[in-house]
Amino acid sequence: MPTTGNVLTEILESQESSLLTDWLRDQHAGTARRGLISDRELEGQSREFLGLLRTAMMRGNNSMEVHQAAEWAPVRELLGAISRSRGQQGFSPSETATFVFSLKPSLFARIRERLGADPDRLFVTLRDTSELLDRLGLYTTEVYQQGREDVIMRQQQDMLELSTPVVKLWDGVLALPLIGTLDSARTQTVMESLLERIVETGAEVAIVDITGVPTVDTLVAQHLMKTVTAARLMGADCIISGIRPQIAQTIVHLGVALGDVTTKASLADAFALALQRRGLRVAPAAAARA
Amino acid sequence: MDRIPILKMGEFLLVTIQVDMHDRLALALQDDLTDRISRTGSRAVLIDISSLEIVDSFIGRMLSNIASMARVLDAETVVVGMRPAVAITLVELGLSLPGVRTALDVEKGMAQLRHALHGSTGAGAGGDADAGPAG
Do B104 and A226 touch (CB under 8 A)? Predict the structure, then answer.
């Protein structure tokens, strides 16, 4: 009595070319975005998939462990490559999964031809085949998601490095324009780079500008305070600037304690104060000449 | 057991911590410094910790205590030259040395102390301490 694997292998062997034709027709009918991929590429991918599927079925002893079993590794590899390339071509993950799912109608029709006389066997075979294709389809989605997560991770890393510049505004005056949300890891980086620069430049005033910080909650405020306190311990004064009206409201509503830190509405105000503390002032050129 | 030397320079007391502090050294310094302040009647103390690379919770607390004790004895206290790593550690430990002046190096610390002692409105970094009436 032939198993599901045997039936599928037989179909894949004897009717490969007609199956491929039917499948390609279904794929063309199913997707509205034919412009994204060439017919030849699609046919190549489909043919390769059928070939690998057959090999896996023959070697796999009906194993349905698509995600782990070694026999399925070539199929997984191909699906991974397809998923990645389609992700770049602009397909959505469900469209990529449909590539596998669209094999069902033509394959089911052939199984029925073969086992039409035996309803029980037909049912079992269809159930197993459906499950197999579902797993393969879901695998493409998984790869897609994994790819996205890698991209996000990399971008986070990049942002962390990009977003903590400490700039020197004047002799003894540093500015730290913060952009993006402050979390613990970032606070650590920010704090370290600010303190390092304070040592390097011997700056006495540091302006922490939070114009680019979208929200200030108690946690962010706590992180800010840590930075300010650490700078103070080293002997540099901190001014927090760039507090937008909504943020001022939030800070008061949340009862966030900013302690006795000097705060200013804009970076310009903070800079003026910093110059004043250093005993400097900005005067119009004409007045200075007169 | 060695001790950390306390130098008297005019009206200043100068404490430079050149070695890594261990617990007994810190306790000895606490005794010595309070003793010297009350004996000499110094009004200003400068503690240089620029060579201090490692602090644990105990040393952190001792630093904070020593500085506060000097303040209580009515001596303006300035802690100078704290390293970034030490500053971060102290903040994480919740020791922010309230009421203690800080400066980047000895020179700036001296300037601050002079300001604080001799009238002119103290433009000190973070210091909230005005020189009180002599005690």
Answer: no
Q: Does the interface ipTM go beyond 0.90?
A: no
Sign of the dihedral through C-alpha A115, A121, A122, A128: negative
Of the candidates A198, A199, A232, the beta carbon closest to that of B126 is on: A232
pLDDT tens per residue, range A112-151: 888 888 888 888 888 888 888 898 888 889 988 888 899 8
Subunit contact A232:B80, Cβ cutoff 8 A: no
Does A116 lie at the interface with B, CB-CB under 8 angstroms? no
| Residues in A touching B102 (Cβ below 8 Å) | 232-235
**B83 part of contact set with chain A, CB < 8 Å:** yes
Average pLDDT over residues A103-110: 88
CB contact A198 to B (< 8 Å): yes
Question: B38-84, pLDDT tens digit by residue?
Answer: 899 888 999 999 888 888 888 888 888 888 888 888 888 899 999 99
CB contact under 8 A, B103 and A235: yes
pTM, full prediction: 0.60
Distance in Å, alpha carbon of A164 to nearest chain B alpha carbon: 16
In sequence order, the 6+-apart residues with CB closer than 8 A to the CB of A1 are: none
Of the candidates A103, A93, A75, A224, which has an alpha carbon nearest to the alpha carbon of residue A148? A93
Per-residue pLDDT, B134:
36
- Whether the CA torsion A30, A31, A32, A35 is positive or negative: it is negative
